[in-house]
Structure formats: C-alpha cells, structure tokens
C-alpha cells in the first residue's frame, strides 16, 4: 500500500479531518459509486487504515486524523472505489476465525467456503483421531489449516499448481502455529501425491469459461484466473480430481468439494462414475448449495 491518492480524490481527502467526518465522506463516496452497505464498508476501511477495531470507529468520532493517517485512508478508499476488495488492499482475510495472508497467486477465501469445513467436521466427531487430510488447490491453505485447528492430532498436505500459492500457504501455517502438521507441495491436483487420506477437500475452479467476463470486477480483476476458470462447462477440475479419489481415500473416506450455483446435479454423476457414493450436500448462509460430500 503506497499511500498515493488517485487524481480526482483531492476533495475527499480535505473532508478526512476526524474519524467521524472521514466515515461520512467515505460512505458518501461509496454510495455514489454504487456500493451496497456503504457505511459498513467505510467503517471496515477506516478500521483497517487506522489500525482500530471496527467498533472504535464509532466510539471515537471526534479524533483528529494525522496527515499520514488521512493519506493512508484516502489511498485505500481510492483502491476500493476501483473495485479492489478490502481484503486485497490490506493483504489478509479472516476465515474460520483465523487470519490468512493473501498473495496474487491465491484465491481470496470467501465465507461460503466455510461450509466445506462445517460439512467435514460434522462427519468426523472424534476430534482426537490422527487423521490425514489432503487439500487440492490449497491457495492460502485456509481449508486445510482450519481443519487442523479443529483436529489437533491431524496432519495434512496442501497442493497447488502455483509456487506462490504454496509459499503463501506455508507462511500462513507457520503464522498460525501449524507448520509442523501442514505440508505444502506444488503439483497439478493429486498427480504427485501418494498415500491415502481420511478426507480430501477441494475448492476447484468451477466458473464456465464463457461466464468469466460477467463476474463482478472484484473477482474478475483480482482473483487469479486459474482459480476461477473451470473450462467450457465449469467441470474440468472435478473430472480430474475424481479420477484420483479411489486411490487417495481410505475406506469410508470423505471427499468434500465446493461447487458452483446449480452444479450439484452435474458433479454428483462425475463422482459416482469414479466409485464414490454421494453422502449429501450443504448450503451456505445464503441457502445456496455450495458443497458436495461423497464417500469412498
């Protein structure tokens, strides 16, 4: 974050005198730009810029901003107005109550992906067992590392085709104190993986190629294309992964994967053709079927 203010936003910076006036100015700018929940977004932005808890933004409206605080907040607002997600601006995202560092090679974890963790945790009631987990397309490592926090004796492997993603995931594991139980490798899905696992999780690319251009700019412009593009029908990654599941899963092992809107009926047969039995589906907080669960 370089602190530069984009041309045309000089008027905004003049209104950033106190926390209260900055909140009003940022919310007004976001409203004009068509953002939903502009005041909530403005509060989160100021909290990040001023290194405060979001509640403190309301609690201290009369606090006068320093010149550096003012410049930093407006620079961040400029980037948000260009549709860059706040998580990208600050370089981190909360997932499963944990903070994950992002990089250009990683997908920005979304709350709906927590449904995968919930689905697996609910099916493995013995938290003390030394499970082995495999996370395909690990990105930030959020799925694997969330699972390792829930199962303190488990170990896991995360795989990503991007070297930068594997490095970021390793960094996140070390920051969270999970470095000794999490291992990350570079590879094309499970091609380089041997051994068997109690569960395999994946959030593969599932957007059909023709639909990429219609995604929101926050996604289209800032998430890596390879993490979004699922091929002509959005199902290429599921076919590749499903072919390896029989050799990867232990008997009665679980496969848990994120799926796109309306893809449940297409993904289920792919898994069945590779010998897996569908165990169920799970919806996210928006009641959208987001997760498929299968057993070996």
Q: Class by helix and strand content?
A: alpha/beta
What is the highest CATH level, the class of the largest domain?
A: Alpha Beta
Instruction: Count the domains.
Output: 2
Question: Which spans have pLDDT < 50 for at least 5 consecutive residues?
Answer: none
Mean pLDDT: 93
- How far apart are the termini? 47 Å
Nearest-angstrom radius of gyration? 21 Å
- Share in β-strands: 15-25%
* Fraction of residues in H or I helices: 25-40%
**CATH H-tier superfamily of the largest domain:** Vaccinia Virus protein VP39
* Cα shape: elongated
Which sheet architecture does the biggest sheet show? Answer: 7 strands, mixed
Describe this structure in words.
This protein is α/β, with parallel strands linked by helices. The chain has two domains: 73 residues, Helicase, Ruva Protein, domain 3; 204 residues, 3-Layer(aba) Sandwich (Rossmann fold). It is 40% helix and 18% strand. The chain has twelve helices and nine strands. The strands form two sheets. A seven-stranded mixed β-sheet has the order 5-4-3-6-7-9-8, sandwiched between helices. It has a two-stranded antiparallel sheet with strand order 1-2. Helix 9 links the parallel strand 4 and strand 5. The longest helix is centred in the first third of the chain and has 15 residues. The radius of gyration is 21 Å and the shape is elongated. The protein starts with 9 loop residues before the first helix and ends with a strand.
